[in-house]
Amino acid sequence: MNRLSWYQRLAGSYDLNSGDDSPDRYRILRRNIVVLMLLVTIIPLVIMAVINQHEYQKSIQNETVTPLATLASKTRHSFELFLEERQAIVKSISSLYSFESLSDPKTLNRIFSVLTNQYLGLIDLGLIDAKGIQLSYTGPYDFLGKDYSQQSWFREVLVKGVYISDVFMGYRQFPHVAIAVLRRTEDDRSWVLRATIDTSKFDDLISSMGLTPESDAFLINRKGTLQTTSRFYGKVLDTFPLSFPQGNYGTVVVETTDSQGREILVAYAPFIHSDYILVLAKLRSTVLRSWYALQSRMLFIFIFSVVTIVLIIIKLTDNVVKRVKEADERREIAFREVQHTHKLSSIGRLAAGVAHEINNPMAIINEKAGLMQDLVEYDAQFRNKDKFIALITSILKSVERCKSITHRLLGFARHMEVQLEILDLNDLVQETLGFLENEALFRNIDLQLQLANDLPRISSNRGQLQQVFLNILSNAFAAVEDGGKITLRSWEEDADTVAVSVQDNGCGMSAETLKHVFEPFFTTKKQHGTGLGLSITYGIVKKIGGDVRVTSKEGEGTTFTAYLRKKAKFGSGE
């Protein structure tokens, strides 16, 4: 395929003969070339930028996000060990001592004294019966006889067996946590042992994390209430202003903007056996400062590269399209000359048939004229006047036939301007077929006409359509062997289009031949073919706003179908 054909295919048009020099044709070509070159050049650049960004983000994650999640997970584990240790102590006391022993204030005081010496943060210890009444208590407050039966924590410990409360103030007016354990005996007796723990140990665990001034760590419950003091978001029992993931999950690190407009990285580490969530927050600007600097440089380089590439591509494309347009203009001028020359050569091929058609009516003229002369000479009274009139009528019909044939011949020979007229497409097809009737009769070719009776008339140019059908029919005659079959059909395709098809049962075409069948100078007739017939046909149909399609299979035959507008649009290039 030559370079010009490639450009035309790139422009979205296979029309080599339409003579369409409209700006849209070259605009589409310019657009397609620009798009193609941009894809070829920018896609690798984008891929490289994406890969670099992805790899650097992975590095940033390994250096910032992963350590943040790891620190939150380790600190959460320390909190859980602290709570589990206190819970285990309360469970051990409830298991080692009987209800009667724990009901004795002296025994309970002795146990409490031992625990406070070994475990920091224990505030008080109390025994509560199955009805929710505190029977025994040791600590700084007077809670003896207090009724907890209506408290939600008491009902929960009766169901779950263990309860760890959120941080609350209560009567003590300072933050503390309650741990309650249910004990059941073999005789179906039950009671609850409840201990209160100071949350100052929580602050110690957070301090051990070694946070920078741009960081913050604190506990919240599942409702978003602060359980410890936060450097960024307030004191104990204040509401945490950000949304956070719900449910039991592993440590999650998210990027967000807080209520004060700060971009932060937040790690959420939920506790497994309690309703606490450890929150670790860091200002994003301090964590990703180096990433921002690199990203800005990469973005500048990328934009500069893209702009440079686009400008170069547009400049090169304009030059290419300009040369293609100039080549098209020269080709169109030359092609019109070839088209006219081919018209003249077609007349030579038809000369024998035309001569035969003219000889027949001329013979009739001679015969009837001789008879008329005999009648006049031998019958002075003109007794055969009626017959004489009939003969004259026959002569006139023959003369009219000669006139029709001569007119068709001149229609092909003259190089006339395009003129539109209302045509009956069926009549035009049959009229064109008349040029080839003798060849069909001589070769015993079966011509079948399946023309629609209600086919609407169209507005087009008679001479150009005759040339289209003659070229298609000539190819069909060349494709079939003697005794072959050619079928012509016509129908109304839609409201704006009619169609005519020429189907033969000849040798058919290969897929490779079909690709080039409408290209100029492409021919399979090596000895006498010019390769211009179908190319000219395609160009004429395109020029009047129609289309030509071909289907073929080797050994089975070929079908050419011409789709014609009811009102031709010359030069549309559609």
Keywords summarizing the entry:
5-stranded mixed beta sheet, 51% helix, alpha+beta, 5-stranded antiparallel beta sheet, 574 residues, Beta-Lactamase, Heat Shock Protein 90, 14 helices
- Can you tell me the CATH superfamily of the domain at 419-574? Histidine kinase-like ATPase, C-terminal domain
Order of helices and strands: HHHHEEHEEEHEEEEHHHEHHEEHEEHHEE
Per CATH, the class of the domain at 419-574 reads Alpha Beta
Would you count the extended β strands for me? 16
| CATH fold group of the domain at 419-574 | Heat Shock Protein 90
**Radius of gyration based on Cα positions:** 51 Å
What is the global morphology?
Answer: elongated
**Unreliable spans:** 1-7, 11-21, 412-417
Biggest β-sheet strands, sense, barrel: 5 strands, antiparallel
Distance between the termini: 23 Å
CATH architecture level-2 label of the domain at 419-574: 2-Layer Sandwich
Beta-strand content: 15-25%
Question: Total number of helical segments?
Answer: 14
**What's the average pLDDT?**
80
**Class from secondary-structure proportions:** alpha+beta
Tell me roughly what share of residues is in helical segments: 40-55%
Strand sequence of the main sheet, in spatial order?
A: 2-1-5-4-3
